[in-house]
Amino acid sequence: MNAPFEGIGASVRRKEDLRFISGRGNYTDDINRPNQTYAVFRRSDRPHANIISIDTSAAKSAPGVVAVYTAEDLAAIGGLPCGWQIHSKDGSPMAEPKHPVLAEGKVRHVGDPIAVVIAETKQQARDAAELIEIDLQDLPATATVTDALKSGAAQIHDNAPGNVCYDWHIGDKEATEAAFAKAAKIVKLDLENNRLVPNAMEPRVAIGDYDRHTSDYTLFTTSQNPHVIRLLMGAFVLGLPEHKLRVVAPDVGGGFGSKIYHYAEEATVTWAAGKLGRPVKWTADRTESFMSDAHGRDHVSTAEMALDAQGNFLALRVNTLANMGAYLSTFAPAVPTYLYATLLAGTYRTPVIYAEVKAVFTNTVPVDAYRGAGRPEATFLLERLVDTICHDTGFDPVAIRLKNFIPKDAFPYQTPVALQYDSGDYFTTMEVAMKNADYAGFPARKAAAAAKGKLRGIGISTYLEACGIAPSAVVGSLGARAGLYEVANIRVHPTGSVSVFTGTHSHGQGHETTLAQLVTSQLGVPFSQVEIVHGDTNRIPFGMGTYGSRSLAVGGTAMVKAMDKIIAKGKKIAAHLLEASVDDIEFADGSFKVAGTDRAKTLSEIALTAYVPHNYPITEIEPGLDETAFYDPANFTFPGGCHVCEVEIDPETGVTSIVNFTAVDDVGRVINPMIVEGQVQGGVAQGIGQALLEHAVYDSNAQLLSGSFMDYTMPRADNLTNISVATENTLCTHNPLGVKGCGEVGAIGSPPAVMNAVISALKDYGVRHMNMPASPEKIWGIINAGRKAAE
Amino acid sequence: MPQVTLTVNGKTSTVEVEGRTLLVELLREKLGLTGTHVGCDTSQCGACVVHVDGNSVKSCTMLAVQADGSSVTTIEGLAKADGTLHPMQEMFREHHALQCGFCTPGMVMAAVDLVAKNPQGLSEEQIRHGLEGNLCRCTGYHNIVKAIDAAQPLMHAK
Predict the structure, then answer these.
(1) Residue A41, domain member (yes or no)
(2) ipTM of predicted assembly, 2 dp
(3) What would you report as the CA-atom Rg of chain B, rounded to the nearest whole angstrom?
(4) Are residues B91 and B72 in the same domain?
(5) Interface mutation target, options B72, B86, B142, chain A, most CBs of A under 10 Å
């Protein structure tokens, strides 16, 4: 019997599942260290206040308490660094106020940590934290960008006048103005992108450990990028060299961006472990997650399109205010600039674009990249604008998109906002999506729904994503303070099994399966004989982690490069053993063969020879079969696609049901179709959540109102429906696998598809635009007002 | 401190706990059964679902002392002693019903109870409704619903 095909293209069932379905996962909170203590943070319940005094005496003498620390105790350590620097229009660097590990003199958002209690048990730490007496003097607070920019608004940081972080722009302003001046029609839309809480199901956890024999520190943490945490925390916060600091991110229960960043709790427990000589463990409860995990989105924008009489897009002008929250999180400044404004061409050949982005501090939890990061905001803006153009002018939503798509033969396509797309075909993804969604049959379904008293709507969205993050020189010139290459170490063991040490990190993506499939295809090693190792700075040479749909395009390519080295070395060994010239050795299906003969050696035989080099060209090559590659991508990758959503609204309740959702995504080559489909479905669910359910709500005093699962509406099984997923596969031209990335496409394409459908369903009520979420209350209000007007 | 005696996955233990200790804390911290997870503090997410005397229970809503004398099954006790997976576990893997795996133990335990209590069979809509108490952030539920549907005949055939 032939072995099942487990290489590139097979829906291999996941390796990691066996431990997860059996309760044998190893998440950070499952780890306990001998002689461990427990940390509980006392956080601000006020959005903005001066700290007058902190009295920790009662807490220090409470049962089981080992230590209580405030900012005073941490005076010698640095603030949390920001990994990206944006320059304003005038060339000045962004305002970059200190982000102290524990609040210094002032609290700036609800959830800002003020003190930490470390005790023998978690309960003792929790009890003692309540005994800390903190005298706060309230200051006026702002939660929204518009409030924070008002003259007279409270200053959140002394060195950020007017609460402005930066005032940035991109594109050709003059050419845009000129195009607007001669436009036949200008359509303008004001819109908001709602603030979200990522809410990975696993709350964040950090355990600091210190080895008094070696003076080595270890941090176990729920991270998407352990090496980045080691670099940021070691170099900028604690002053520890890399070789004395190990960061381990074991099984991680979802991230969606929120576990990229270096957080205060990680630095605190690591520092305290050294100070106390004992391990210190902190586990967030969900309430803490809501007020300490970086939030996502939160843009207020104005978009204007200039059109000619035929509906050709002539120019796009965008003004966006982006909420940074109270401090700059690790990647925050990059999100509304280089992950957003550079995407404003979308799938369209709009010849000139000008965008201005002002980033603003508010008294809210820091905002950073959340699944899609900037690209969902750009897509929502564009695709809502296109449907609004149709609303205002009478153009058809399909026809106007087809008219303005970048032509198939225009690739590589240079956009007016920096990016150069290497490949894509937006016509085909839209054609397939409309076919899969039976777009043509919609009027009949709408009529049938109307007969039942329901309102049906259909919405289209097309999108373009830049991912596979990212060419280091490019991002460096754009303000990144790091490179964004990836690293792979491929170790062929003496008997032929393979360990892959990858700098990417899996927190649900299934890398242990997909990356093993690459090895099976490239080296011919059975899938069961390949192990993927990630998430430990002591085992993996280096790496930048997983976000921005980069693992396969960048990390997978690093693996291919390392495997190329394995094959090249294997050929030399094989040539020696087979007494042939290296040039005559071919490698295929796991065997090195002398071309045109049946003389061959398997990879296992070569590996054994490499480690037992009795008959070996020892003067020419080293023993061993273990190769590392660093790979820096030549460009971003550019997935694109079309999502079609059909909704039904119950006019009696205002509740929107998704009746059909069809996604067609061009993600380049697909390694594991089952996993890709799952990634798209999960992303779409988060996008539907953003469109219909989710909203992180602050009141006008900057108190977080939706601070638990009781108040923040997470999508549940009965809010969603089956999601039809298909892929198209125009290959990426600049990586050897032709892969583009699939982790974020669902969350990018879906929100405008849903909102376009909702607004189409409410067409008879004169709705031109609605901000997300399209809650039953909002919709019922519109319907009710419409009815009243009609009555 | 109060003593609690309970049988977990067929093994009887007696442990001392503080009165405020939750069942999930006893399972994770006293018995080392870390397969049961804690995803929230308001009993909304269902990551902590276990079976207590044959009923699915959010183990964060139950005090350990309330479980005194009970028989508890956790995700670690779902497979047969010889390692044969429960059909629900099999179907979760077969249908890619998990990604990060954090909600999975609670989701599987809730699903087993849901299917077991409904031998007449459940429609897709009923399965979705039955999962209301369990949050998953990764999958969009599509494949979880498929897995549970596929497990129905396998469970009822036994």
Answers:
(1) yes
(2) 0.98
(3) 15
(4) no
(5) B142
